[in-house]
Amino acid sequence: MGRKAMAFKRTSVPFTEQQLSNIFKSHDVDGDGKLSRDELKNAFKYLGSRWDAYRTDQALRQADANDDGYITEDELKKLVEYALHCGYTVG
User: Fold this and answer.
1) Distance (Å, whole) CA 35 – CA 38
2) Each residue of 60-78: b (16+ CB within 10 Å) or e?
3) pLDDT tens for each residue of 40-78
4) Residue 12: what pLDDT?
5) Engineering a disulfide at 55: which of 38, 44, 45, 78 sits with its beta carbon 3.0 to 4.6 angstroms away?
6) pTM, two decimal places
7) Average pLDDT over residues 5-29
8) How many DSSP H helices and E strands does the chain contain?
C-alpha cells in the first residue's frame, strides 16, 4: 500500500495592532516621525495589498486628521484601525 499524502489547509492569521504599528513605523525611511504618501504606499505593498495606491488614499482619508498629507504619531492609531479593518494577514 502506498502512503497517502496529507493535505493541509493554509490558514491566515490577522496582524495584531502592535505588529501593524511596527510595520508602519518601520516604513518611515527618512526618520522624520511621520509617514509620507510614498512611505505609506510602500507599507501597504509590504502588507500584500493589490491596490496599494487605493489603500494609501483611503488611509489618508481615514487617519490624516489635519489633512497635511502625512500620518503622524498622533494619527497612527487611526491608520492601524483602518489596516485592521482591511484584514491583512501574516503569511
Assistant:
1) 8
2) bebbbeeeeebbbeebbee
3) 999 999 999 999 999 999 999 999 999 999 999 999 999
4) 82
5) 44
6) 0.85
7) 88
8) 4, 4
